[in-house]
Amino acid sequence: MVQLEGQGIARRIIAAIKQRIHGGEYHPGDRLPSSRALALEWGVSRTTVTAAYAQLIGEGYLLNRPGARAVVARGLAAAPIPKVAAPASERTLSDFAERLLALPAPARFQTYRVADLRYGDLNGADFPMLPWRRALNRASLRRTERLRYSDPQGSAPLRAALQSYLWRARGISCAPEQIVVVNGSQQGLDLCARLLLNPSDRFVMEDPGYVLARHAFAAAGGVAVPVAVDREGIRTDGLPAARLAYVTPSHQYPLGSVLSAARRRALLDWAVEAGAVIVEDDYDGEYRHGVAPIPPLQTSAPDTVIYLGTVSKTLSPTLRLGYLVVPPDLCGVFAEAKRLTDRHTPLLEQEALAEFLASGGYERHIRSIRRRNAERRAALLQALATECGSRLTVAGADTGLHVVAWLNGVPAEREASIVEAARAAGIGLYPIGPLYASPLERPAEAGFVIGYAAHDVDVIRRGIAGLAEVFAAAG
């Protein structure tokens, strides 16, 4: 047996490595850190680590390779970690946690061999790799005297660049101080929920609508008041008293309608009378197909509307970059909430986006992907018409990156079985049913949200061809 130098520390290193092997963090064949790296991590001498490794080699946990790092021995299966039941007093969760657990569980991510028609995914080939890399390089090479926490509202250059872009692209007039940079629109929704709603406060929600917005407000203790949507957007006749309304007026998610001028005015009047705040989610306002852009609600009522934007539909959802435009009186509290949440959004990506916006590269990129997605949209609509014919009714195709396909004559109760049949055929298909909060508003026919921005035209055609067979089998 190996004589261990600094036995207490060496034994702790041995126990930690064994725990990682049995817990499945280290798999057979995995290389362990070098003795130098592990010594630095633990703050011990290399001799202590070398002795610990030698002990593990002697016990058969590791294999020694001359001139190379030790690896985990073959035949060592991960052992299940025993679960110890904690007393109820130690397992008490907050009310927030209990509300969170009561929400429907999220769907598992899967891969599909033919096509995944999930909305929100983008084509990796569309990402502007070289311009973004140049922007990142310029940002990373910029020297600063000290590395420190940044402004929780976002970097000054990015907020200035966003101010200019929002004026050019969406007609929004605001001060940089009104902009709060967030880790994607979901963090923006979470901040709105925690700052604007108390438990039992009511919030108006489009029905159907964006589930993660509904969940964010419900987790904060808000009570959803679903309001039906039709071809003119959310219905504004008889809106109930509420503290907040969440809407997608430029492109209603998921049905695709645009809020009419009369209803825009009625919604804003209601907010003033009710003392409510409107959260306007402009999640894909850059994508208009042959129709004029709709000005945001925020341009008509900047003191009543919180505008929520994102680059997840233009650059990548992996970047987690979004922004809020808040009324002036709310700037301070949103900044403080952002500070307590995560100090600030990662600064390097903010600086790169500021460079990309200021150089004009972002808008050139948008023009490019707008053309590409118009081609994908045309291919999707043509394939649906050719392969499915009168079996389907397609809605919401004028804007955005998705359509809704209603399966004529097939009852809504069949959605789940059709989804399973599609997935068995290698196609990711997503039902519209879970987006409805009120069963009374749910149409009688089966419907599906079909995204198309992630695939090339050929993949879209193959996916719809396969989907047509599934729909045909469903009757």
From TrEMBL:
Keywords from the named record: Aminotransferase, DNA-binding, Pyridoxal phosphate, Transcription, Transcription regulation, Transferase
Coiled coil region boundaries: none
Domain of life of the organism encoding this protein: Bacteria
Domain HTH gntR-type: 7-75
Listed InterPro entries: Aminotransferase_I/II_large, HTH_trans_reg/aminotransferase, PyrdxlP-dep_Trfase, PyrdxlP-dep_Trfase_major, Tscrpt_reg_HTH_GntR, WH-like_DNA-bd_sf, WH_DNA-bd_sf
SUPFAM superfamilies listed in its UniProt record: PLP-dependent transferases, Winged helix' DNA-binding domain
One Pfam family of this chain: GntR
Keyword Transmembrane helix in annotation: no
An example Gene Ontology molecular-function term: transaminase activity
Family per similarity comment: In the C-terminal section; belongs to the class-I pyridoxal-phosphate-dependent aminotransferase family.
Protein name: GntR family transcriptional regulator / MocR family aminotransferase
Organism annotation: Bosea robiniae
